[in-house]
Amino acid sequence: MKIGAEHLAAVARALSVNGLILRGGFAFEAEENPPAAASGKPARSVALVGHAGAAQWPHFSKWLCRRDGQPENPLDTWSREVIGSVARQFAARAVFPSDRPYLPFQQWAARAERLKPSPLGILIHPEYGLWHAWRGALLFDEIIGFEPVGATAHPCDDCVEKPCLSACPVSAFSGNGYEVATCTRHVRGASGRNCREGGCLARKACPVGKSYQYASEVQAFHMAAFLDNHPVK
Predict the structure, then answer these.
(1) Largest interatomic CA distance in the chain
(2) 3-state helix, strand, coil in the chain (%, to 5)
(3) Prediction pTM value
(4) Torsion angle of alpha carbons 70, 72, 74, 78, nearest 10°?
(5) Where do the DSSP E strands lie in the chain?
(6) What is the pLDDT of residues 162-171, one digit of tens each?
(7) CA-CA distance, 137 to 210, in Å (whole number)?
(8) Mind listing the pLDDT tens digit for each residue in 165-218?
């Protein structure tokens, strides 16, 4: 059985209620070894779920305000509830980037939308820039008729100055990769207040997708979560 455009449109409408969007997808090849779908059999297709900009934030904030206590990973918990509900509605299996063992979300995302990494290591979108994310994926027992995604120009190819690589006050990003310890020490310190409260300066320096840039409140939330996941050693 093949799922067509009408079915996908219904999935997209269900996700949009919470500010989420379908981020493309693909049918697995015969030689691949995909995870199981809802039936327990190997999935035939995967649809990526995420957001552009912070469209999900008002919905997440309202959900968080209604709770008696804050869960350890609130955005992950919200994503599991919302995407899991849509998965059950459409007989799919919901999976998430934090699932163990880890699933190849970055590979799936790059394949679904033909995206490539920026110099910061984050997959960059030609419209959204660095201001987007994937919150989960739906695994289907059927083949999905996704519209083919053509090759797009990599936004970084024509960016000569690469301001993202020079904006970090402690040069945590370079041609040699990302120095996580250098970054976290700075962000935790007195001189890291701008990064801690307003978001990563390197990410904000990218000229692509400025209209999708997260509000300071959203960036501070993600920075706090980043620090929680990278304790001082």
Answers:
(1) 58
(2) 40, 20, 40
(3) 0.93
(4) -110
(5) 2-3, 21-27, 45-52, 93-95, 116-117, 123-124, 132-140, 143-144, 173-174, 177-178
(6) 999 999 999 9
(7) 26
(8) 999 999 999 878 899 999 999 999 999 999 999 999 999 999 999 999 999 999
